[in-house]
Each structure stands twice: as C-alpha cells, then as structure tokens.
C-alpha cells in the first residue's frame, strides 16, 4: 500500500541583511532546517503584521534591530519532514530586504519556540546544500541575480540533520 502524503503548510517572513558580501544567518536548532544555516525570521503571531513579525523575529534570533527596507518577493519549497503526522512541509517564505538600525549580534534568549542558537556572517563560499536551508540558498541567488524565481522548489531528497 502506498502511503498518503500529508503536508504541513508553514508561512513565514525572512530577512536578508547583507554586508560586505556576507549574509547574516542563524544557526537553526529546530524544525526541518535543524543544524543548518537559516535566515532570521519565522511565523506571525496572532494579529501581527508581516513587517512587525519580521522586526520581532530578527531581534529575537540575532539581537539586531532592523528596519524593513523592501519586500523582495515570495517563494515556496516542499521537502520531506516527518513531524506530528505530516510527511512533508510546504514552506511559503516572504523575503524582505532589511537594514540594521540598532543592537548587536548576541546569543538569543532561549524560550519555547526559539529556534536560533545565534547569528553569524557567512559568504556564498561558506554555504552548500548540506549546511544551509533553502532560504539561505535562495537569498544568495537573489543577491547575485536580483531574482527569486516563481517556481516551487521540491527537495525530494532533503536530509534532516538531527
């Protein structure tokens, strides 16, 4: 019997903060991107606007206070993830260009739902399919080309690095 696929839909906002050809990323400690570099960002809280969520998530995960400069666009990914009865995650990511207006990179406070072990700068040469989330890979593509693309990216052989 062929098992039925069951998708968890995740919608989040993510910030691209670039300086000196490097991207500010977090060390992810949960979810399908665990033990990989990921972009600062995440889900909205009830009643929260997209840009308010972006600012909150960025400071919670990096210690850096940001201003949202522009909406870059939206892209989606599907990858296998065995979680709470789901077989896959369909991740819809809204990307923003952001700039620093305060704070410093610091170890984030740990609380339920915190999935950042801290932030660091990486260059394109530092990342690969093995150590970065699809969000980071797509962010570097955007930094190089100015385009996100419009097509779903399906990572059929995604490895969760627990």
Summarize the structure.
Helices cover about 15% and strands about 45% of the residues. The chain has about 160 residues and is an alpha+beta fold.
Could you characterize what this model shows?
The protein is an alpha+beta fold and 162 residues long. The protein has one domain: Nucleoside Triphosphate Pyrophosphohydrolase (Alpha-Beta Complex). Helices cover 15% and strands 43% of the residues. The chain contains two helices and nine strands, in the order βββββαβββαβ. A five-stranded mixed beta sheet has the order 5-1-7-6-9. Strands 2, 3, 4 and 8 form a four-stranded antiparallel beta sheet that branches. A hairpin with an 8-residue loop joins strand 3 and strand 4. It is globular and about 50 Å long. The chain starts with 6 loop residues before the first strand and ends in an 8-residue tail after the last strand. The mean pLDDT is 94.
- By CATH, the architecture is named Alpha-Beta Complex
Q: Which geometry do the CA atoms define?
A: globular
- Total domain units: 1
CATH homologous superfamily identity: Nucleoside Triphosphate Pyrophosphohydrolase
Secondary structure tally, helices: 2
| Strand residue percentage | 35-45%
